[in-house]
Amino acid sequence: MNKLSPNVIGMTLISINVGLPREIIHGGREVTTGIFKAPVAGPVRLGRLNLAGDGQADLRVHGGADKAVYAYPFEHYAFWAKELGRHDFSHGQFGENFTTMGLLEDEVFIGDVFRIGDARAQVTQPRSPCFKLGIRMNDENFPARFAAANRTGFYLRVLEEGMVKAGDAIDRVEHATGSMNVREIFRLRHVGGTRAEYERAARLPGLSSSWRDAFEKRLAEK
User: Fold this and answer.
1) What tens digit of pLDDT does each residue of 3-40 get?
2) What confidence tier does 2 reach under pLDDT thresholds 50, 70, 90?
3) How far is the C-alpha of 114 from the C-alpha of 112, rounded, in Å?
């Protein structure tokens, strides 16, 4: 596993990871996936839709303005190493673009805005894992374990483009007062909740359009 420098404190971008879609054989068929991300050195441009050098395979469910970049807490690496009995991880292991320190899901809220290098980005939604995460981890059961642990990381929309690099401080420049944190919103969608919680979630101004639609549909069914 890549070693984290002991002098890194606070909220920090510790690795930038990118990768372009590739074709692999899975279950006897060809699958195109962008799940394989690897660290890059030096400054990288963060644009409205993605990082330079990065790409997504299925744009129906990945990428887009609401999911321009995916962040995952480095703190979870130790949990998964112990849980899976593995010590072969490197940054980008979970398909994340940003490996971060100090940004856990119960402390990050939908709509929060962060300054990272020259860019500004806003939290939009948790990650809902698909089968391609199982491909990356070489474990078809891993997506279910990932969801059950509610250690999902989160997506960001880019409000202001700019250059970012590993080692940049991450500063919360706007806190979404009255919002729900990433862990709460994931539980609400994938486990369930009250009508009042769905109504509250559907009104969150920073929430991605796809998750807002899901909560509005849930309300219509109640």
Assistant:
1) 444 355 689 999 999 999 889 888 888 889 999 999 99
2) very low
3) 7
State whether residue 3 is helix, strand or coil.
coil
Q: What pLDDT does residue 4 have?
A: 45
From residue 151, alpha-carbon distances to 102, 182, 186 in Å are 14, 9, 10
Q: Which of 47-56, 104-113, 167-176, 181-190 has the weakest average pLDDT?
A: 47-56
CA distances from 73 to 109, 196, 197, 202, 212 (A): 14, 30, 26, 26, 24
Burial letters for 104-137: b for 16+ Cβ neighbours within 10 Å, e otherwise?
bbeebbbbbbbbbbebbbbbbbbbbbeebbbbbb
In Å, what is the CA distance from 50 to each residue of 44, 73, 85, 92, 180?
A: 10, 19, 33, 15, 25
What's the rounded Cα separation, in Å, for the pair 113 and 206? 9
* Three-class DSSP category at 143: helix
Tokens of 220: 């219509």
Using DSSP, state whether 44 is helix, strand or coil.
Answer: strand
Ranges of H-type helices in 87-169: 131-137, 142-149
The amino acid that residue 37 corresponds to is K
Question: Dihedrals φ, ψ of 218, to 5°?
Answer: -60, -40
Does residue 55 carry a pLDDT above 90? no
Distant-in-sequence, close-in-space partners of 45: CB < 8 Å, separation ≥ 6: 51, 52, 161, 162, 163, 164
User: Please, what are the domains in the chain?
Assistant: 12-176 (2.40.33.20)
Is the whole model's pTM more than 0.90, yes or no? yes
